[in-house]
Amino acid sequence: MKPDRVGCPSKVTRCALTGLLVLLSLVESANAQRAIRPWRLTGAQLVQRLGNVDPSTVPWSAQSSLPSRALAAQWIDANNGHFVLGYFQAVRDLTEGKSWCWSPVETKPDEMWDAVRIRLQRMTDAQLKRDGADLIVEVLQERWPCASRRKP
What positions does the domain Rap1a immunity protein occupy (predicted)? Predict the structure, then answer.
């Protein structure tokens, strides 16, 4: 074998480089698997954000910008509610006309949110382990199917 510049046989260098590339791709693959869709929420995470925050679990001190732990919990509840509503609205806007069809004659937009929220809160723990966006779409499909899928 012919040695390369640093005195190693060229086949060994190629094997080492190939091994290094394989190792790097495995590490990258493992990192990608850990970070798959971190922005997606389960149904349980959505429902948890719809519930009331226990004030005793809120980190709070006298130096806090909110005057009491109870008000801090209410502030978190309000933010969580806005977050879940925004998540619902994004899923709704992305899937309307594709997965389900809204009719202004049949329902008002607020009724859609109420229907989804109530249905999520009534789901079993097993159902809530699934992807929250998928659960939202399923509720919308059941309540507002497109004309081609409407049952007579």
Answer: 78-146
Contact between residue 121 and residue 47 where contact means Cβ atoms under 8 Å apart: yes
Q: What are phi and psi of 138, to 5 degrees?
A: -60, -40
The per-residue pLDDT for 118 is 93
pLDDT at 151: 52
Side chain identity, residue 37: R
Nearest partner of 68 among 83, 77, 58, judged by Cα: 58
CB distance 123 to 46 below 8 Å: no
Regions of the chain short of the pLDDT cut 50: 8, 12-13, 15-36
Give me the domains of the chain, ranges plus CATH numbers: 1-36 (no CATH), 43-149 (1.10.890.40)
Residue 87 near residue 41 (C-beta atoms within 8 A)? yes
What are the tokens at 88? 């619902």
Rg (CA), the chain: 26
